[in-house]
Write a structure and sequence with these properties.
With 135 residues, this protein is mainly α. The protein is built from five helices and two strands, in the order E-E-H-H-H-H-H. It has a two-stranded antiparallel ribbon. Strand 1 and strand 2 form a beta hairpin. Helix 3 packs antiparallel against helix 4, helix 3 packs parallel to helix 5 and helix 4 runs antiparallel to helix 5. The relative contact order is 0.12.
Length: 135
């Protein structure tokens, strides 16, 4: 069984005069109350929080938004792929693996993807209705 580290006597990595209250949930660095407050409910250290805020939009985030839009123009399959990529990117952003700058693109991929799913279902229902009525 691994030993549990006692963080009460250790100091913060950025404020040596402050006692640490918890390790960063992402990298394990010991942090004080002030440092944890910067990242909100995530419980990340300063470095992890800054890493998640900065950086270019990921390719997966852009691809999800573009595929969602492409699905509305061409066919519904790219839109469904945009939906899947959008959800994957949003999870990656929440874990801190991708920068938060791609959140809007990922959300666009999810919203447009669901529009694609709805339109595909509507087209399928209309096609079935036409086939049943023989018109």
């Amino acid at each position: 069984m691994p030993e549990v580290q006692d963080n009460r006597s250790a100091s913060c990595a950025w404020h040596p005069e402050q006692t640490s209250v918890a390790p960063c949930r992402r990298c394990g660095t010991l942090t004080c109350v002030a440092c944890l407050a910067l990242s909100g409910s995530r419980g990340w250290c300063r470095t992890c929080d800054e890493h998640s805020r900065s950086g270019p939009i990921s390719r997966r985030a852009r691809a999800s938004g573009l595929l969602g839009g492409l699905g509305l123009c061409c066919a519904f399959v790219p839109g469904v792929l945009g939906l899947v990529l959008g959800y994957a990117e949003l999870r990656s952003i929440e874990r801190g693996d991708s920068p938060r700058t791609g959140r809007e693109w990922a959300r666009a991929g999810v919203v447009l993807g669901w529009l694609n799913v709805g339109m595909a279902v509507a087209v399928g229902l209309v096609a079935a209705w036409i086939r049943l009525t023989g018109s």
